[in-house]
Design a protein that fits this description.
By secondary structure, the protein is of the alpha+beta class. Helices cover about 45% and strands about 25% of the residues. Strands 1-2-3-4 form a four-stranded antiparallel sheet, with helices on one face. A three-stranded antiparallel sheet has the order 5-6-7.
Length: about 140
Amino acid sequence: MVEESLTWTSHPLKKNKRSTILVILFITLAPAVVFFSTNSLFFLLLSLVILLGSLASFFLPTTYELSRDKIKVKFLINTREMEWGKYRSFYVDKNGVLLSPFEKPSRLENFRGIYVRFEQNKEEVVNYIKSRIKS
């Protein structure tokens, strides 16, 4: 029996200390290299903004809610809600599951689909998704 809804928060920063240390080291060293190679405070700040922006999903928590009729993803002030009918297939990996709007693998999946990260609930999430998407 699959639950009525499933809600959890994923926060990769807290999950793996080694990865966290490596990411922080990279965010420290990369802008330093940019600054010392360009001697420009502007490029230093630009590199910091780009790095922090691209890694925001690592540093900040994301809340997922899978319900009977839709998927809700909350990140910062943005909330996305998608109907289950939009998705035709899914692919499970060790960190999460990619929900795809295509029946067969496509290069556009990463842009049109949605990636749902696990938080020590892989089996629950996969079973819930299997009950909603018949692939």
